[in-house]
Each structure stands twice: as C-alpha cells, then as structure tokens.
Amino acid sequence: MMHRPKMIISVATIILLFSCDTKEKITTYKIKKSEVIQPRDNITLTLKWTTPSAWEELEPGNMLMANFNVIDSKNKSTNISISMFPGDVGGIENNVNRWRNQINLNPQTMEEISKYIQDTPLPLLGDAQIINLNNPQNNQGMKVVIIPNQNNQTIFVKMMGEFDSLSELDYEFNLFLQSIYWGE
Hints:
By secondary structure, this protein is of the alpha+beta class. The chain has a domain at about 60-184: 3-Layer(aba) Sandwich (Protein Transport Mog1p, Chain A), CATH 3.40.1000. It contains four helices and nine strands. The strands form two sheets. It has a seven-stranded antiparallel β-sheet with strand order 2-3-4-8-7-6-5. It has a two-stranded antiparallel sheet with strand order 1-9. The protein is globular. It starts with a helix and ends with a strand. The model is unreliable at about 10-40 (pLDDT under 50).
C-alpha cells in the first residue's frame, strides 16, 4: 500500500505533466457578461453615474435623463446628455441619420454607417457602440454611445458641439461613460 505523502506527490506530478503545454502560447477567453439584471426583492435599479466636477448640470428636459454643459479651454460650450428609450428607437440607420441631420450632414445607408461604428465594452454596462460624426464645413461634431439594455431599452449618451471641443473633452467623456452603472 502506498503511503499518503508519496501518493500526493504522485498525483501532483501526474497533474503537472498533463497540464503543462510545451508550446509557448497564451490562450485568452471572452466571457459574455450576463445581459439580464435580476432585481432583488422590491428593489428598483436606476441608471447612475459620476459627474465630473467641471460639468454644469442642466435641467434634463424632454426625453433626457441627464443634461450637462461643459466649457472647454477656449470657452466653447459642449452639450452632453443621457437618454433611454424602449426598444431600439427605429434602429441604427434611422438614429444615425437623425444625428447627421442635427449637424447638417446628408443621410447615409446602413452600409456606409457600418464603416465607422466602433464596438466597445463598457466595464459596468457591457457592450456598446460608438459613433463619431463630424461636419468639417461647420466644425460641428457629435459622439454618440449606444448601449443596448437588458430590459428591451436602449441608452444613448451623446456629446455634441464644435469638433475641436469634442476632441479636447474626449478623455473626460470616456471616463464618464465608464462610471455609468445600474444601482439602487
């Protein structure tokens, strides 16, 4: 009969031999985050975020959850807003063309639009899509983040203003996006 220490060493050696790979490679895995938030007993989750201190909070207004005014280093104003709607509110093509119209750009087909949609993960909300629009003729631009929601709703976070201002505020805007989460 094998002694216990010898048996443990033998089992560990076998595990090590079969688990080691002689090839030098790194394997990565992507695990999809759950798309469903299970509410706990009688607790309603709401969208929350951390607002940068330099942002001026404005009245949300019609169809907005939040509305901010941000002044850049050249004293130019940029608007940042959050809205949430049921479903996909007409789909990507209709939404992008509505936003393009807001900065005086012509509509595009979904094939054209798909060339500049960027998929990005948000750490607290999951997958999102970013759309950057720029009209060089009037120096207007817009960055819109589309976040599909697990409750058949879509969240839109939009930054709109002069293109130069958007570039300057991009880092701060991205930090703001990463702070958005569902909380009590």
